[in-house]
Each structure stands twice: as structure tokens, then as C-alpha cells.
Input
Amino acid sequence: MTTPILTAEDVSVAYGKVEAVRGVSLAIPQGQIVTLIGANGAGKTSLLNALMGLLPSAGRVSFRDEAMASVVAEERVARGLSLVSERRDLFATMTVEDNLELGGFRTAASARAAAMEDVFARFPRLRERRRQVAGTLSGGERQMLAMGRALVGRPRLLMLDEPSLGLAPRIVRDIFHIIKALMQTGVSILLVEQNARAAMQIADYAYVMELGEITVHGPAAELARDPKIIESYLGLGHHR
Amino acid sequence: MSSSIALLLVQDGIINGAIYALLAVALVLVFAVTRVIFIPQGEFVTFGALTLTALEAGRFPASVWLLLCLGVTAFVLDLARGRTKRALIPIARRFAWDIAAPLALLVLALVLAPMKLGLAFNIAMTLALVVPMGPLIYRIAFEALAEASVLTLLITAVGVHLAMTGLGLAFFGPEGFRAGSFTSLSFALGPLFVTGQSLLVLAVAAILMLALSIFFGRSLIGKALIASAVSRRGARLVGIPEALSGKVAFLMAALIGTLSGLLIAPMVTIAYDTGFLIGLKGFVAAILAGLASYPFSVLAAIFVGILESFAAFYSSEFKDVVVFMVIIPFLLWRSLSGTHVEEEE
Ligand SMILES: Nc1ncnc2c1ncn2[C@@H]1O[C@H](COP(=O)(O)OP(=O)(O)OP(=O)(O)O)[C@@H](O)[C@H]1O
Ligand SMILES: [Mg+2]
Output
């Protein structure tokens, strides 16, 4: 196994008395896809927000061998950590192009244009819609824009929170193809998904989260054969 | 009322309206980016005008003391809050900007003010002394309140306003001053008497508006400011530091306010509290535009200016009352039609 690009040790998140994440430890190896699956309310989004520095949390997070405790979210972005959030958080009143340009806020102006071209090549739909206002995009286009915006910043680790949320099966397939292709460019990926079957297929390693804790983890191919995982997460009843 | 008097009143109203428009735009800008309703906006008008008149008379501008106070406070607070890294170089850098630079300006002002170096120098010096107060005020009063409610921010803004007028009184004294005209140009246009100063007001206001629209439409920093206003989380996710947007917004508000002060210094007598009233008229315009739209703020400001000049013609005691009363039916209509300025989340 390669050295991890990100490690979390004993991370906890609490909303007042509610403990959403309890003592989670995980490691994301360089250049791999790691997936995090779990039922609604398991604490996946809370964990991602904590890793990004958007939520106060206990425990230790280190990214590229640097402790993140005193590094605010904006600076984590500058160091190559990026989150495509569940709510997308696009700039709704601004054009697709402006959204993408701002994705490169922390990168050099010279690199930004090339990165935007790259994103347009990956998502031709965005090129067609470049002058359209983000708030008027369809759900699928919005997801592409959120991913595209993150990619313009040339992240080292991309954290995706339910990229397939609310999308038609064909678009979901496209998005998963793109995620797989991204990994081949050397980006490490942490993929949070309800669509566990698809996520396990492209992931190298998987963590299962229940009620704020990691209950099972292992190579994705092995977990995909685990009868208990199949029953709870990969069974037929779990298609949405 | 004869039509020529009406024309005269409209002319007057448009010129005042241009100043209100600038202030309204600054208020909308600061609110959009930081959710602060920036009551002290008018103080920059006061300090700009009073600094100019002091320099013009060859007196030492008291705004230096204010700048130094703010610089020292910001420096100490940032250090105490741990916002300045406790290492030699970051501390030295902050010290240079917050304390050494105002001290250098102090020396410069002491030496150069009595020499009466002329209008260009006076304007440059005024901008150098007053504009940096904007970001300093942001750092001292608002940066730590990024998560606070609009109401908390408003109360803080009122506090800052009271402190600034108090300091204005302490440093500048209660007297009012008026600057000499920037240009002696004037001519008759039909029934109207047009002064160069009033043309200057309109020209500078127009140029500033144009510059602002280019700034927001084209530059990455301008877009980042809009982005922070549209989605604070989105802005953080692309790495736009919240404090950067805040500081830039306050810097621009201070610049706009100070320029407005410079422009009207030759047209009205300004005392330590005059700017507040002028700022409030800009505030009325900004409210009429729902604190949201720049073009509507400008139109509303022109309307406020014209309304004020007609009200002043009929009854000078009631002119302010009339202007402030237009807010009431408007707020009533807005609260009934249910289009409030919503808070995020
Ligand atoms: N801001 C908040 N205040 C209070 N409780 C919260 C808050 N955000 C999340 N929670 C709670 O924390 C728990 C974990 O939520 P979280 O969003 O992290 O789950 P999730 O695994 O991402 O779920 P989903 O799959 O539905 O997105 C839930 O019980 C949720 O109700
Ligand atoms: Mg979630």
C-alpha cells in the first residue's frame, strides 16, 4: 500500500449533545479511490465537513504529512484538498464559466485557463452551457459543474459527497466513469455514496459507517463478497 | 412654482443624489459580502472632508490620530486572538502595516501639512489617511463575527458609528469646515447655473460606477466578492478567505465614502457629525433598493436627492423628515409582499 495522502485519527463531531461522528479513523492511500458507505444519517457528510475544516471536530487529521488542526478550510483548499459537497454550494447567480474560474481562485492565473479547458473536455455539456447561470442548470449539470469547479483547482484529494444524488441512471454511469478516469490522472478520491454497488465497483478500498462509527473496512473487492454487506448495502432493496 | 425653479431643484437633487448613490452602492456592497449594515459609512465622508479642509488650511489633520488608534488596536487584537502567527516575520509585517505606516504618515503630515502643497497632494494624503480605516474597522469589529446574525452585526455597526463620531468630535472638534472649490469653472446653461464642482461630482460618480461594474464583471477578486455574497460555503470551498472578501469590501466602502467626502467638501459645511446624515440618505436609497440591487440603488438615490431638494424648497426644517418618511410605506409594502432579505440557512 502506498503512503496515505490523508489520515484521520479518532475524529469526532458533535452537534450540541448529538454525536454524529464518533472516533473515526481512516487512511486514504495516494492515487486510489476510497469509498465511504452508510445509511442515511450515519454521519458521512459530517465526517467530510470535518475533514475539510468546515466543522469543528476532535481528533487529528493530517493531509500530505501536515497536521490540519490549525489550517482553516480555505487554506486546506490551497494545499490541494477539495470537497464537492452534498448541497453543491454553487454560485447560483453566476455563469458556469465564472463558477469554474473561481474554482481556480487559489491556483496561478496561467494554470487556470488550461485547467478550465481540461474540465470542458471532461464535461462537454459544461462548454455548451458556459454562459448559462448556474442556478438554472439541471441537477446533473449542476453536479458536473460542482465537480468541474473543484477540478479547476487541481486538487490532490477530491472528496465527493453523493455525486449521484438525484440523478438518472445513465448520468450516474457517466459520473462514475468520470470519477474512474480522474483517478488515472493521479488524483486521490474519497467517494461517499448511497449507491454502494456502483461505488464498490470503482473503489480500491471501502469503509462502512453506522451510527457515527466505522464498523467494517477492507479492500472493496473483498467487502463486495461479504454476505452481511451484501445484505445491508448491496441488496436489491437498496436501489433508489 | 415656476418651471425654472423646478429645473434648478432637479439639478440640485441630481448632484446630491449622485453622492447618495455612491454611498448607497457602498452600503449594498458591504451588506452583500459581509451582511453588515454599515451605519458608519457616512463617517468616511466626514473624515475625508475634514482631512481635506485641515490640509488646505495648512493644519495637521487629526485623522492621523484616528488611523494610529485603529492601527494599534487592530495590531494588538490580532495578536491576542492568535490571528497573527506568533513568529517574528508575520508580527514584523503586521507591525509595519498597522503601526509603522501610520507613524510614517504622521511624520509626513507634520512636515508637509504646513507647506500647503496644493490640491493633488491634499487629496492623495486624505485618501492615504482615511481609506485604510475601512479594513482596520473590519478587522477590529467584524472579522470575529463572521457567523453572527444580521442583528448582531447591525448592533456592532451602530456601536462603531457611535465610537467613530465620538472620536471625530474629540479629534476634529465641534466646528464645521468647508473646502475651496476644486475648480473655478462655471457657466450658464439656459436657466441653470452650472459649476465645475457639480460636474466633477457627476463625472467622478459615473467613473466610479463604471469602474465598479468592471471590477465585479471582470476581475477575479471582484467575482470572488460576489461569490462570497452568493454562497459563503461555496466561497470557502474554492478557497476564498472570508476575511479577504470582508477586507476588500470595507476597503472599497471606505474609498467610496472618502471620495464622496472630498467631492462635497467644497459644497457643504462639514462637521464631525454631518457625514452621518448624508450616509443615512444613502441608506434610505439602499433600503429602497432592498439592499440588493446596484442599479436600483442609484435610481433610488437620485430620487432621494430630488425629493430632498423639493422638500427643502417648501420647508427646510422638514426636508430630512420627508426623506426618511419615504422608507415607511416602502417597508410596509415589502413586509406585506413578503420579499424579505433572507438570512442564509
Ligand atoms: N447542523 C446539524 N445540527 C444538528 N444535527 C445535525 C446537523 N447536521 C447533521 N446532523 C445530524 O447528524 C447526523 C449525521 O448527519 P450526516 O448528514 O452527517 O449524515 P449522512 O451520513 O451524510 O446522511 P445522508 O446519507 O442522509 O446524507 C444525523 O443524525 C443528522 O440529523
Ligand atoms: Mg450526507
Q: What stands out?
A: The pocket of adenosine-5'-triphosphate (ligand 1) is lined by residues A 15, 18, 20, 38, 40-46, 86, 194 (CB under 6 Å). The radius of gyration of chain A is 17 Å.
